[in-house]
Write a structure and sequence with these properties.
Strand order of the largest sheet: 1-3-2-8-5-7-6-4
Helix content: 25-40%
Shape: globular
CATH architecture: 2-Layer Sandwich
Largest sheet: 8 strands, antiparallel, barrel
Distance between the termini: 81 Å
Number of strands: 8
Strand content: 25-35%
Number of helices: 8
CATH class: Alpha Beta
């Protein structure tokens, strides 16, 4: 009787534990390797600079003088993808997107060379006096998104930023690998990225539109395509927080 009672108690304990212990399917690779483009080793840096309102014009002028020199310098393995001021969203904000060809070693090389560049050192000092705050993130690009390449304008740009629930990046990637085909008709998809360093489980989608009305028309048209509503239904629960910025490119931005 004692042995039977012990076995029954053990089975009950095991059953109770199964209610509260989540089983995790082991993965053989990091989600960055599963979702990022394998044919390139590009690393992206996204910078957010909150500028003192009275300094925004001077800040833009300073950036337009210095940033193209870094972009055009052949000894720096980096490129300026785009640079903007936020129009709707957080005000008096500048957003810069850089690409480093060759990943982290390229980033380290550029940072090392810039520390020895007297003009850039003076630029950072002068720029710092104009800022209220700043933050950046290092990103990889999703394998299924468009490559962010220079485009003619005039355009407005929307940066949609999603804070995902930890552990849901693979799900997000699986759904958006299908969803992106619904948003290609008007060539509005510029690039899609996910964070590696900085605020984690962040996703950024970058879109280009001729104007706000065109944005509205294109987004509304997606809802008439069979399957779009289902993909939105499944991705919304993965999101903890989301933000939209409408941005205007500076004159030096390759994305116009």
């Amino acid at each position: 009787r004692g042995l039977g009672s012990s076995a029954r108690s053990s089975r009950e304990d095991s059953w109770l534990k199964s209610l509260f212990v989540r089983k995790v399917d082991p993965r053989k690779d990091a989600h960055s390797n599963l979702l990022a483009k394998r044919e390139t080793s590009s690393l992206y840096k996204l910078q957010f600079h909150n500028v003192k309102p009275e300094c925004l014009e001077a800040y833009n002028k300073l950036c337009q003088e210095v940033l193209p020199k870094i972009h055009e310098e052949k000894h720096y393995p980096c490129a300026l993808v785009g640079t903007w001021n936020t129009w709707y969203g957080e005000q008096d904000q500048a957003v810069h997107l850089w690409r480093y060809e060759g990943g982290y070693p390229a980033l380290n090389e550029v940072m090392s060379k810039l520390r020895q560049n007297k003009e850039f050192t003076e630029f950072r000092k002068e720029r710092g006096n104009m800022l209220l705050s700043r933050k950046n993130q290092l990103l990889l690009e999703f394998s299924f998104w468009n490559e962010p390449v220079p485009r003619d304008g005039p355009n407005i740009y929307e940066l949609r930023s999603y804070q995902l629930r930890p552990g849901t990046m693979i799900e997000w990637g699986n759904y958006w690998a299908r969803a992106i085909r619904f948003r290609q008709d008007s060539n509005e998809a510029v690039g899609g990225f996910f964070s590696q360093i900085g605020q984690l489980y962040m996703v950024h989608h970058l879109w280009a539109y001729k104007d706000l009305q065109t944005r509205e028309d294109i987004r509304n048209a997606a809802w008439h395509k069979p399957g779009w509503d289902e993909l939105v239904y499944y991705t919304v629960p993965l999101i903890q927080e989301m933000e939209s910025r409408i941005m205007i490119p500076l004159k030096i931005s390759p994305l116009q």
